[in-house]
Write a structure and sequence with these properties.
The structure is a single chain. The protein folds into three domains: about 140 residues, PAS domain (Beta-Lactamase, 2-Layer Sandwich); about 80 residues, Signal transduction histidine kinase, dimerisation/phosphotransfer (DHp) domain (Helix Hairpins, Orthogonal Bundle); about 160 residues, Heat Shock Protein 90. The chain contains twelve helices and twelve strands. A five-stranded antiparallel beta sheet has the order 2-1-5-4-3, with helices on both faces. A hairpin with a 4-residue loop joins β4 and β5. The longest helix has about 50 residues. The two termini are about 45 Å apart.
Length: about 400
């Protein structure tokens, strides 16, 4: 039974037969009991506030948060500061009462030998007749542990892939060095002595392969070391325009038409311009390699919800669907001379910025990388106030 039927019943209360009234009230009581049983047996805590007073709170709310147990099961009509005993939690919950939006925050509590992680969320329940604030409390300890186990598993799998990739990468340079050292020994044994000119062709190969090994080591360290990202609030357009000036000559030299479109009045972002430039440069290099016979490369940046999206689209050879899920993995490459770390670095940089990256590709038609970067809260507020 909904509120509309009850309102109609109240309007005709004087003329309603007593049996019908009893039946109506009985149905409503049964419905309320059912709803309360659902909420009470849920693992999610709820506390509903109206004008700073608690109008409903289930038992799990009191068990998940530090509360005064004297009010267990009978907190209705009391203020939060009578119920909540933790100053930090109380301060946060009181701050939500004057806010119109939704928010969430994690709190850590020591319980015996364990640390429990409690997530507090809120939502407004509005209608013509009331305005309530619903505080939603969840124990996310096990979820966090599962996520940590998953990250460890992914990290172990990534390390295994990296180890196999390194072994594969260094195998060829070492083999070439071994062969040329043997050739150098044979030449020396045959002539008893060698001039620098005689040894030059062997030594040059050795130097080249040593440099190759060094580049493998440098790329590997860059991929696995924590990045010293220095995020500053700044505009995205200067970063893109600087990159445009840098890559345009090379792209045009290879017959690639380069187009850059940046939506005006984009909000400022928390970015490290040097690292973000490196990520975009790696994607553009991939596009360059994919368009050996020329083509078109479009780079655009635009606002989308609470994010700014950077889209890099090429008309190159495309990527097989079976490879799309692996392109960000370390040492995965389809190029004969590629290290397989370029897109791994891109992925790592974007994650350090709190963003996300996705890719769409069709063989023979081209590829599109989309980078999504979050807009800082204060920038979103400023845009809402100005109506932009």
């Amino acid at each position: 039974m909904n509120g509309r039927l009850l309102r109609k019943a109240i309007e005709r209360l004087d003329s309603m037969p007593s049996d019908e009234l009893k039946n109506l009230v009985s149905q409503q009581i049964s419905r309320n009991d059912m709803l309360e049983a659902l909420i009470e047996n849920d693992k999610v805590g709820h506390c509903v506030l109206s004008q700073d007073l608690i109008v409903y709170a289930n038992v799990i709310f009191a068990t998940l948060l530090p509360t005064n147990r004297l009010y267990m099961g009978r907190s209705e009509g009391h203020r939060l500061d009578e119920i909540i005993t933790d100053d930090e939690v109380l301060s946060y919950l009181e701050s939500l009462q004057g806010e119109s939006g939704e928010a969430e925050k994690e709190f850590y509590f020591q319980q015996g030998s364990e640390v429990r992680i409690i997530l507090i969320q809120n939502r407004r329940i509005n209608s013509d007749d009331f305005d309530y604030l619903d505080l939603i409390v969840r124990d996310i300890t096990e979820d966090k542990r599962s996520q940590a186990r998953l990250r460890r598993s992914e990290s172990l799998a990534s390390m295994t892939t990296m180890a196999a990739g390194i072994a594969h990468e260094i195998k060829n340079p070492l083999a070439a060095m071994q062969i040329h050292i043997q050739l150098l020994k044979k030449a020396f044994s045959k002539k008893k002595s060698l001039t620098l000119d005689d040894a030059e062709r062997y030594l040059s190969v050795l130097e080249e392969e040593i440099e190759h090994l060094n580049s493998i080591a440098v790329d590997f360290l860059f991929a696995v070391r924590p990045m010293d990202v220095n995020l500053k609030k700044q505009r995205l357009e200067p970063v893109i325009r600087n990159l445009e000036d840098f890559v345009r000559p090379e792209l045009e030299e290879h017959g690639i038409r380069f187009s850059v479109t940046v939506e005006p009045f984009l909000p400022k972002l928390m970015i490290d311009d040097s690292f973000l430039r490196q990520a975009l440069l790696n994607i553009i290099k991939n596009a360059l390699n994919a368009m050996e016979n020329g083509g078109r490369l479009d780079l655009s940046a635009y606002a989308q919800g609470n994010n700014v999206v950077i889209c890099v689209r090429d008309t190159g050879c495309g990527i097989d669907q079976e490879h799309l899920a692996k392109i960000f993995e370390p040492y995965f490459t389809t190029k004969a001379n590629g290290t397989g770390l370029g897109l791994t670095v891109v992925y790592k940089i974007i994650k350090e910025h709190g963003g996300d990256i996705s890719v769409e590709s069709t063989v023979g038609q081209g590829t599109c990388f989309r980078i999504s970067l979050p807009v800082p809260d204060d920038e979103r507020t400023a845009l809402e106030e100005t109506g932009e």
